[in-house]
Amino acid sequence: MVRSHTDSTAFKIQEVRQNEVPKGREGKHKKTIEQLLERIDQLAPGAALKVPLAGLPATKANIRAALNRAVHKRGVAVATSSDSSNLYIWKAAKGKS
């Protein structure tokens, strides 16, 4: 059962069943970031990933932001760079991401 209440000065608020409420945050880019993290873990020293921007499911800025959140959560240091067609990602020394 969904009930709505509107007020002339407020936004629309709905009531939903508790079992309909999402329990965890699964970001929109979770699969992409998981793939990147897996590849980063396998990188040899001095190597970088070259990721075509055209193959990304979102903007370069959104992927970088999601990657940044994920690596900080894992305690991994990475650095990124980009050109007009690719995003480059490599392991960085701690504190130099």
Give structural notes:
The protein is elongated and about 60 Å long. The protein has 97 residues and is an alpha+beta fold. The mean pLDDT is 87. The chain has helices at residues 30-42, 60-74; strands spanning 3-5, 13-15, 49-52, 78-82, 86-91. The strands form two sheets. Strands 3-5-4 form a three-stranded antiparallel sheet, covered by helices on one side. A two-stranded antiparallel sheet has the order 1-2. It has one domain (26-97). The protein contains two helices and five strands. Helices cover 29% and strands 22% of the residues. It starts with a strand and ends in a 6-residue tail after the last strand. Helix 1 (30-42) crosses helix 2 (60-74).
From the structure above, extract its key features:
single chain, 97 residues, alpha+beta, two-stranded antiparallel ribbon
**SSE pattern:** EEHEHEE
Whole-number total of structural domains = 1
Q: How many DSSP E strands? A: 5
Q: Please tally the helical runs, counting DSSP H or I stretches of 4 or more residues.
A: 2
Name the poorly predicted regions. none
Rounded to the nearest angstrom, the distance between the terminal CA atoms is 48 Å
Specify the overall morphology.
elongated
> How large is the radius of gyration?
19 Å
Averaged pLDDT, please?
A: 87
